[in-house]
């Protein structure tokens, strides 16, 4: 039985906003050239729903488009995101590697559970070398229900996690922790919303705070 920390990716480990706007602009410019969009890029609406699975994103942003159009848009958007990651236009939040090194050095297992797609997550993990510390990266694509709580349950069951926490910035992360008997650590970062964070067991404003919250595996959370 292991004690572990399960991290969200977007808005928790990775500063998605650094590549989000340009990738979304590229995507909607493509729609404009195809005469499928004639307004501004809905960046603020996307920020409001940040953290939900991408199919839900396109249902919200493109409600009048066909499923085929949404799927093609999704593919193009993913391509733009990955290109921007590999060009170094994104960034991790401060102290990610330092905190990961501390956690692993003190006996914690580290996992990533994200609503992002597999190829996207692998691009971030590969570019920043996070696989040095991370034991497993899990996408919502691994779960038929597309539910974050079910994704975390899959990790808990697979690795026989007895104690630990889910660290994330949105309500789906908080629910995923509580639904699986784990501590919910809310991150007051870029996409966080106060009414959602209020449901967390504890709130951090910098990942460095995790070093004090989780000083050693033997210590109860």
Can you describe what's shown?
With 221 residues, the chain is α/β, with parallel strands linked by helices. The protein has 2 domains: 2-15 and 91-213, HAD superfamily/HAD-like (Rossmann fold); 17-86. The chain is 47% helix and 14% strand. The chain is built from 10 helices and 6 strands. The protein has helices at residues 17-33, 43-49, 54-61, 67-86, 96-105, 118-128, 148-159, 171-179, 194-197, 209-213; strands spanning 2-7, 109-114, 136-139, 161-168, 183-187, 202-204. Strands 3-2-1-4-5-6 form a 6-stranded parallel sheet, sandwiched between helices. Helix 6 (118-128) links the parallel strand 2 and strand 3. Helix 1 (17-33) crosses helix 4 (67-86) and helix 3 packs across helix 4. It is globular and about 55 Å long. The model has no long low-confidence stretch (mean pLDDT 93).
């Amino acid at each position: 039985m292991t004690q572990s920390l399960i991290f969200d990716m977007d808005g928790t480990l990775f500063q998605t906003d650094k590549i989000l706007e340009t990738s979304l602009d590229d995507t909607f410019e493509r729609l404009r050239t195809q005469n499928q969009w004639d307004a501004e890029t809905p960046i603020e609406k996307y920020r409001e729903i940040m953290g939900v699975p991408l199919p839900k994103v396109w249902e919200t942003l493109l409600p009048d488009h066909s499923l085929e159009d949404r799927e093609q848009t999704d593919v193009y958007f993913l391509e733009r995101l990955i290109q921007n990651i590999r060009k170094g236009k994104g960034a991790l939040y401060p102290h990610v590697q330092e905190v990961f090194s501390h956690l692993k050095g003190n006996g914690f297992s580290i996992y990533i559970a994200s609503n992002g797609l597999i190829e996207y997550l692998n691009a971030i993990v590969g570019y920043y070398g996070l696989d040095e510390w991370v034991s497993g990266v899990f996408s919502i694509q691994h779960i038929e229900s597309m539910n974050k709580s079910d994704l975390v349950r899959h990790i808990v069951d697979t690795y026989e996690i007895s104690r630990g926490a889910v660290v994330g910035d949105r309500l789906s992360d908080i629910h995923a922790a509580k639904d699986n008997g784990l501590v919910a650590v809310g991150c007051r970062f870029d996409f966080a919303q106060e009414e959602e964070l209020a449901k967390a067991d504890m709130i951090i404003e910098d990942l460095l705070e995790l070093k004090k919250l989780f000083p050693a595996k033997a210590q109860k959370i």
